[in-house]
Amino acid sequence: MSVYTTEIASDKIASDNPIHQRLLRPYHACHDLVHGRVLEIGCGEGRGVEILGDTGIQYTGVDKIEEVISALAIEYPIFDFIAMNIPPLEGFENDIFDVVISFQVIEHIKNDRRYLEEIRRVLKPGGKAYITTPNINMTLSRNPWHVREYTPEELREIAGSIFRKVEMRGIAGNEKVMAYYEQNKRSVERLMKWDVLDLQHRLPAGLLKLPYEILNRFNRNKLKAGNDALVDDIVYSDYLVSDDPEHALDLFCILEA
């Protein structure tokens, strides 16, 4: 079974390593913060339960990919896994979770307000949600898998209309990570020069997914071939929780019910 595209980075594909490590960082940042009943929305292939599963939490993972959910249920029988398209969070009562985590999900959700309202609904009073999403200020090209991307202020505004408290932080990178980012940026800019008609912004997202996947995989493989050591050597600790979301790679939003 393979569910991996360049949008769902894998630890099994060497050229995905910088993205995979970037996705790990928020889980490590939350390791000492999660407690009680924890819901992960968009648990994917199990990065979250693998890192957080030793904290004594009562974990429930939700994802739309049924094959992945079935595999996780076998691998982690002490936890709960549910295949579900969200929003809404069907079958969950109000005020039942101490913590909700949802990393790199909101950008895929058409009704982002309903998604946030559902997180708020299932959180206990005073409970916290931790979400991440790409910072549009640092995005290099249109991603056809994303419904939208946010500036820090845009995400703060919509979250602030639903949650009692919003703290906006970011996931940034050290010099090693930013060297990779700059190489990637130059490579993407060279590819985009061929898009003289600006088709990446003119075509419907559905028509862009296949060429995006082909070019993105080509670009990642090219970056690895050109600087193998840099791509291989990046680890999750090279990514940093930052107080400067404007210039972070991802937004890291902490919400309190």
Notes on the protein architecture:
- By secondary structure, this protein is α/β, with parallel strands linked by helices.
- It has helices at 17-30, 47-52, 66-75, 112-122, 152-160, 175-192, 199-202, 205-226, 228-233, and strands at 37-41, 58-63, 80-83, 97-103, 123-134, 165-173, 239-242, 250-256.
- Helix 6 crosses helix 8.
- The model has no long low-confidence stretch (mean pLDDT 94).
- Helices cover 39% and strands 21% of the residues.
- The longest helix is centred in the C-terminal third of the chain and has 22 residues, at 205-226.
Tell me the overall shape: globular
List segments where confidence is low: pLDDT < 50 over at least 5 consecutive residues: none
Q: How would a crystallographer describe the biggest sheet? A: 8 strands, mixed
* Portion in beta strands: 15-25%
What count of helical segments does DSSP give?
9
Trace the largest sheet across and list its strands. Answer: 3-2-1-4-5-8-6-7
Overall mean pLDDT? 94
Number of strands: 8
Brief sketch in words of this structure:
The chain has 257 residues and is α/β, with parallel strands linked by helices. The protein contains 9 helices and 8 strands.
Please describe the topology of this protein.
Blueprint: H1 17-30, E1 37-41, H2 47-52, E2 58-63, H3 66-75, E3 80-83, E4 97-103, H4 112-122, E5 123-134, H5 152-160, E6 165-173, H6 175-192, H7 199-202, H8 205-226, H9 228-233, E7 239-242, E8 250-256
Parallel strand pairs: 1-2, 1-4, 2-3, 4-5
Antiparallel strand pairs: 5-8, 6-7, 6-8
